[in-house]
Amino acid sequence: MPTKYLFSATLIFVGLCGCHQTAPPTEKKPHASAAIQPASNRPAIDELRKGMPYANLRKVVLESGWLPVVDKQCKSNVVGDDYSHLCSAHPDLDDCRVCDELPELGSCSGDGYCGMTFKRGGKELHVTTYGMIEDRSVRSKDSRLEVSGWKVENESAQ
Length: 158
Fold this sequence. Notes:
The protein is an alpha+beta fold. The protein is about 30% helix and about 20% strand. It is built from six helices and five strands, in the order αααβαααββββ. Strands 1, 2, 3, 4 and 5 form a five-stranded antiparallel sheet that branches. The longest helix has 15 residues. The N terminus is likely disordered.
């Protein structure tokens, strides 16, 4: 029998007899969306600590189902009103990338404070950080971007 027919016959046989390998019933993999479904309303908030690296907070919050709230004025707030000209001339500037990398970012002040917002289930989580925005991805204790505070509010409470 030619090889391609033998291969096809083998595939049909495996499909009919159920001889393919499967994971044991106790090792069910969660649905992709299950990873972002919060177990309850508070676990992410209970894990937050003042002084923790912002990257750690962000990971916990996103994994708990909170979604970034995009501020369309972010680039203007962070870079300045002339961000379009500045960023097209210098796309490598960190300030020109930060709003794209942290869609939850709303603004940063000149003295190192930044504000971020997430939402989930009719609630908004407002986070304040202090430090160097360049360390937004640093998860170690060496991060120079730390959480200085947060609050949860109803979306309509703005």
